[in-house]
Design goal:
This protein is mainly alpha-helical. The chain has helices at 24-38, 50-57, 61-73, 96-116, 121-149; strands at residues 77-80, 84-87. The chain folds into two domains: 1-92, Winged helix-like DNA-binding domain superfamily/Winged helix DNA-binding domain (Arc Repressor Mutant, subunit A, Orthogonal Bundle), CATH 1.10.10.10; 96-149. The chain is 54% helix and 5% strand. Helix 1 packs across helix 3 (61-73).
Length: 158
């Protein structure tokens, strides 16, 4: 998946990965959600017109409509008759400066190390997802541990 911010009326250009096993409509949904989360899309930004997405990706219009419908049901976008489809949500956005530093560390450190270890893109993705699951599991164990060690306040009966 690639998110590209460009100078066209739309702030996003969709890309499809036909080898991912993820349905095309869901790839579009994920790209919009990720763009919102990362601050590439903001309230009021226009999404590409269905016919433009169909032309650029060579997919069925119903695929794009299905993606847009799902995003609309989530309250993220909305259609304006005669104008197009626009972002209607202010999703949780990370601070872009912080993200730039994180991305740079991935690009200059982690990715080259993973490639040197013999991982291809799928291998990197699998390792990253495994590490993310481990991170969340460790965080959850720590939270449970803090809850069970919390001191119990007792009142004095009198």
């Amino acid at each position: 998946m690639t998110l590209v911010r460009d100078a066209t009326p739309s702030s996003i250009t969709f890309r499809l990965d036909n080898s991912s096993g993820v349905p095309p409509y869901l790839q579009i949904v994920h790209q919009v959600e990720h763009a919102l989360r990362l601050g590439y899309l903001r309230r009021g930004d226009q999404l590409p017109r269905v016919k433009d997405v169909v032309a650029s990706l060579a997919i069925n219009p119903n695929t794009v409509l299905k993606a847009y419908r799902q995003l609309e049901q989530k309250g993220l976008i909305g259609g304006r008759p005669g104008q197009g489809t626009f972002v209607e949500s202010d999703g949780p956005v990370a601070v872009l400066g912080d993200l730039s530093a994180l991305e740079k560390r991935l690009v200059t450190g982690w990715f080259p190390d993973a490639e040197a270890a013999g991982l291809d893109e799928e291998g990197m993705r699998a390792l990253f997802m495994s590490a993310m699951r481990s991170f969340h599991a460790r965080r959850e164990r720590a939270a449970r541990s803090r809850r069970t060690r919390a001191p119990v306040k007792r009142g004095i009966a009198g």
